[in-house]
Design goal:
Length: 375
């Protein structure tokens, strides 16, 4: 009898409280500098809470920007078809018609490095391929484009705070530091010196967003030709004989980063929520340096010196003893030094930690589209 009364009360209050429910699907393509990923999502929205379910993900290489060159080993049509065929199959497996799914292709820093007319020529071909050979609808210049660095920072912040509870449950927000292949982004909530106000369902959040084109790991390592940043055995036309030295490499990187005026641009509040590190760079450094899951500048400094100052740890050793792909072993020592220097430029205390996480900014893009469909 008691259970029946409780059930009746629950049903009564459910009828009294207005609610809304919606379920949608989306295909989002992240055209990064070193590769392109397609994500297939289902989104369930109940009142003002968003629940994203990833139905599938596929990555291919090279990055879309490679098609600016004539010697790309695959045709653009074959490249795009790989992604869209996977998306269509994934949707159909989940009983969703492709024409019912929202579609976006958003490119990041790899394409931002190209001239505007080169970008547009590639996008025109992509749009024609999609409209002529696949079942997605309303694919045009507004759904296939390059996003700005500030947008990428915002989407990464939204993805992170959806994951960690701020968006749905109003828990404290998290800052993000994202390091990609060609750019780096930062975003955090701040009561002062904000440059963007984000509004979702009437809730306004003041943010600082910034992106540095050229401070992605791949672009940075191509620009640094200081022999003290690389292990013994590594050589190029500009580096005749590498010999790693943390202090000297730190100086070289600080000089390089000085051109980006990081300390003048970014004022991170002293009282701040924890920061999340986004991008493969954070996870790979954690793994081969054997760092704690949440690591600090002090732990990076200690472990990098132990690993890279060892005279036995030559390029050949790194090729066989790190989690990095063999072709990237030459970057094993510059990676943690760069991360250390960047965190110190952002005024992280020696023991202040950052937490690596596998998060994609595409979820933030999707959330942004749901809250303002015209964007």
């Amino acid at each position: 009898m008691k259970a029946k009364i409780i059930l009746s009360l629950i049903l009564f209050f459910l009828f009294l409280v207005p609610y809304s429910y919606a379920s949608r699907s989306a295909v989002l393509i992240d055209a990064g500098s070193s590769g392109t990923r397609v994500y297939v999502y289902r989104v369930n929205q109940f009142n003002h809470q968003y629940h994203l379910i990833e139905l599938g993900e596929k990555k291919i290489q090279p990055g879309l920007s490679a098609f600016a060159k004539a010697d790309t080993p695959i045709t653009l049509k074959a490249y795009i078809t790989q992604l869209l065929s996977y998306a269509q199959t994934t949707l159909q497996t989940n009983h969703i018609k492709p024409r019912e799914a929202s579609f976006r292709l958003a490119a990041t820093a790899g394409m931002r490095l190209l001239p505007k007319n080169t970008q547009q020529a590639i996008y025109t071909k992509v749009i024609n391929i999609i409209n002529n050979t696949h079942q997605f609808t309303h694919v045009n210049e507004s759904s296939v484009r390059t996003i700005t660095g500030q947008q990428e920072a915002l989407y990464a912040w939204l993805s992170t705070n959806l994951r960690y509870g701020y968006i749905n449950h109003h828990t404290p927000s998290h800052g993000i530091l994202e390091i990609g292949g060609a750019s780096a982004q930062i975003a955090f909530q701040t009561p002062t010196k904000s440059n963007y106000t984000y509004s979702l369902d009437g809730k306004k959040t003041k943010l600082f967003l910034h992106s540095w084109l050229g401070l992605g790991m791949n672009e940075l390592s191509r620009q640094i030709h200081d022999s003290t940043c690389y292990p013994m055995g590594y050589h190029t036309q500009k580096i005749k004989s590498a010999h790693f030295d943390f202090s000297e490499c730190q100086k070289a990187l600080k000089h390089y980063l000085s051109h980006y005026h990081i300390q003048q641009l970014v004022s991170v509040p002293k009282k701040r929520a924890r920061f999340i590190g986004i991008g493969h760079h954070f996870k790979s450094v954690l793994e081969y340096l054997h760092l704690p899951y949440k690591y600090s500048p002090a732990s990076i400094l200690l472990q990098t010196k132990l690993l890279c100052n060892n005279p036995k740890h030559t390029l050949s050793w790194f090729e066989h003893n790190t989690t990095l792909p063999k072709k990237l072993a030459w970057t094993a020592c510059i990676r943690p030094v760069y991360l250390y220097v960047l965190l110190k430029e952002l005024k992280f205390a020696d023991n202040e930690t950052i937490e690596p996480a596998h998060i994609t900014w595409t979820e933030g893009l999707l959330l942004s589209l749901l809250s303002s469909p015209s964007s």
